[in-house]
Amino acid sequence: MNQKTEQLMELIEKETDKRIDIYHDFKPGTQEAEVTSFTLKQASHAVYFILILVALFVWGAVSIFPRYFPN
Amino acid sequence: MSVKKQTTDEMVREEVVKSRLPTLPNERMLSMTDMILIQVSFSVATWMLVLGAWTGMATPLPLAIIACMVGCSLPLLFHCLIGPFVARWGLDNGIITNSIAGPLGTMIIVVAITTPMYLGWTSIPIVMFGRTVSESLGFLSVTGPMANATFWSFVALGIAFVILWKAAAVLKFFFRIVTPCIVLLLALLTYKIFSHYGWDHISQIIPEGFHKDPWISFMIAIEMNVGLGFSWPFSFAVYCRLAKTESAAFYGTWWGWGPIWAIACVPAIAGGLVAGVTDPVYLLKDIGGIWVVLYMLFLGVANIFSGICTMYIVALTARVVWPKLSWLQALSINLLVIILILIPAAYDQYGTFVAFYGALLGPLGVVWVVDILLRKMNINMREIYDVSSKSAYYYWKGINVFFVISCAIGTILSLLIYNPVSCVPHIEGIFRVCGAAFPASLVAGFCYYILAKLFLVPRKIGFPPIPE
Fold first, then answer.
1. Whole-complex ipTM
2. Interatomic CA distance for residues B460 and B466, integer angstroms
3. How many Cβ pairs closer than 8 A exist between chain A and B?
4. Cα atoms found within 13 Å of the Cα of residue B229, Cβ hemisphere only
5. What tens digit of pLDDT does each residue of B241-255 get?
6. pTM (2 d.p.)
7. DSSP code of A37?
8. B contact residues 337-396, partner A, Cβ 8 Å cutoff
9. Cα B409 from Cα B363, distance rounded (Å)
10. Cα–Cα distance measured from residue B204 to residue A13, given in angstroms and rounded to the nearest whole number
11. Calpha distance B334→B324 (Å, rounded)
């Protein structure tokens, strides 16, 4: 069992080194990487979501809350 | 020879989901749909039921829905950039956190913050499973040791443990099949609650609240949900490193843990308001009949599934930080949940638990995101795997002091504004407008930006050159 674990450890270490080299080669975040990168345009949608959620909070505060607790 | 090579490849493929190996792009198997389904599988179980019931005890139905939607979704947007960062480099928490905290800092975070937190999260579905089965057997007039809730909690822990031990790689198929079934069941239960009691009746119920001032009680409801929204920084890596696109890592996690979670809370809010209890096990007791059976079935399946999700995170992180651990040894750390089964503190004091971790992890996540922006989502792969004092990410004695200072400022400020244990705001002026964890996190992020710009970036401490 221990021998098997050691073999596995060795395998993982070798494979990790190999993969570190691969990552250096294909430059993550660029077109050479196969993982599609996150664009500024995609990120900008988050700003709209933030505005919608803030508006929802304000609506709750100024419109719904006074209906339950008028004073 | 070919058989041996195939075996090695298979071993590597299997190890990718449960070791420190960086995932390669061609190993990414999770699309946007998969990411949403996985995160929804977190949502549609215990945690959202408990959160919904607690929120329902704080404020009336429409305000409780707003509290869930805003509290769960808004803070999360400030943490979500961690997802694409992880997806870009395919690394797990135990490695990628070195870039912000340093190797010793990472170890301290894993031992002192994330592992206890996930053990707490895991205990909640496990305890609820036990109580659910115990309650179900009570309906069937079964008494004695077989109806003991603690016993069934141990059974749930055992089932989740065995599934993860023997079949971690098949989780994807569980997510694709089990999650939609659970969502369907939840939709049916939601329909039944509202058709049985009626929207008008439920929305007219005004709960006692957690504070004599109803606005502060509403803000406490938001604070609990903000605590939930801020509780994810160390959950991104587990699945985002397997995402096919960085956008899926960002929006897949946000939809699943944010708005969909909030929507899933609605039946629990309604049930909590009607039943007047914070324990979701009793939410449908008054409806009775086949619906209770369906509800108990839902709780049974969903709770074990939820337990699996967090137990997987604990085991994977442990194995990444301490690579010599076998999968079984790493998984066995989860057996500490036994303590929280016997003393169900996280389950019975959920509001405090979640708000406290919001104060702790909110600042930490925002500081991390500021760091990611400062380094333009780049890391040096060779340096980040090096935990020796020669590493560019070693900082000072293995800890990024400025990260610690910024997080401490945020957490202390949050706890100064609001005490999650006593549910009492100390600085009411701030708490009434924007709660505690949210403004404190923004202050922490701003502090780190200034400190890093002054002391880290110019000296290239923790910001090494990136190979072209």
1. 0.85
2. 11
3. 120
4. 30
5. 889 999 999 999 999
6. 0.88
7. P
8. 377-378, 381-382, 385
9. 8
10. 62
11. 17
